[in-house]
């Protein structure tokens, strides 16, 4: 990345991040703090392990707010709190809003309950829209930037993650439109694809609970048809590790991209962090005929067969 920083990070610059309970949000909050920003970390559980760890590691310039991005009241309360912080500290400015909060529910579309579908849409897509709308006047005033965390699933829809991928693709499309709208106000809009770190977050912590809800919602006919396949599918997912406590991600390239997105006078409209394996497969997904692409997707996923 070319580096055209306008300045170094300052404690007078405030960065608001959603979904800081674990994983990417937790890691970005820590890194923004280390850069020198004042950080406001939105956590679904204000007294949870993630928020507690953040406050212990970042005792001076980090503030935790309880935030449920699916709740208009919760989002508006958070926006008002940030507005009060800025009003009480005239030398402060809003540097960035990072829309990171996300929900991933693994399962074939036919298995998902309506609630599973709506929850992913509400958190991953509408949550980012809801939060950005509540912060829009502050972003215009301080010419802050919007950073939306998307996913490689937005670029290549994957089986078992059809709804999740749709929400992340929607997020990219929204960013493209919003970027043009906000440019004339001096508000950069950035989409950010961080790579795959779900095994280092709690995003799959409730997967078995969701699987139980799927099974309970199946008709007897569906239960008989999917039975053994459904069981093997979820046994495979249950073997994926989830961290017992929030831990910062160890990925230098990821943090380098975040720094450029936050510090650069001319940030890129789109950042993508990918392993060689991801780049190889996603290149093949784009260039292969559909029949080959679908075969490669199944190889890439390595899920149990029907």
Automatic annotation (TrEMBL):
One of its GO terms (biological process) is steroid metabolic process. Signal peptide: none annotated. One of its GO terms (molecular function) is oxidoreductase activity. InterPro entries: NAD(P)-bd_dom_sf, Sc_DH/Rdtase_CS, SDR_fam. It comes from the Eukaryota. Keywords: Oxidoreductase. PROSITE patterns: ADH_SHORT (PS00061). This is Estradiol 17-beta-dehydrogenase 2. It comes from Zootermopsis nevadensis (Dampwood termite). The lineage of its organism: Eukaryota, Metazoa, Ecdysozoa, Arthropoda, Hexapoda.
